[in-house]
């Protein structure tokens, strides 16, 4: 099943921000940041796409982070670290996310 364009744009942006792959410690805050604007299902779709990347350092960590996201919130410091990392790649919460109507 093809990934919707909105989610693909987020995936592409994450890949731009983390060209060598997302480190394990950043998955939980990354998904928490995305979850502020996306549904759990959409975040899971993004996680699955990232797990398929050759650059994925530890695909099992992605599944663990998704499972933990339901029960645990990352620290604001961790979320801010990820936001800064993505900001360096041009992230200003993609306009498509900030203007969602669904």
List the topology elements.
Elements: H1 5-17, H2 24-35, H3 40-52, H4 59-71, H5 76-88, H6 95-98
Report the CATH C-level class.
Answer: Mainly Alpha
Shape: globular
Helix count?
A: 6
Please provide the count of β strands.
0
| Total domain count | 1
Q: Give the fraction of residues assigned to helices.
A: 55-70%
In round numbers, the mean pLDDT is: 83
**Biggest β-sheet: count, sense, barrel?**
none
Distance N to C terminus: 20 Å
Low-pLDDT sequence parts: none
How does CATH name the architecture?
Orthogonal Bundle
CATH third-level topology: DNA polymerase, domain 1
Q: Rg to the nearest angstrom?
A: 12 Å
Q: Spell the H/E element sequence.
A: HHHHHH
Specify the CATH homologous superfamily.
DUF3349, helical bundle
> What structural category characterises the helix and strand content?
mainly alpha
**How large a portion of the residues is in β-strands, by DSSP E?**
under 5%
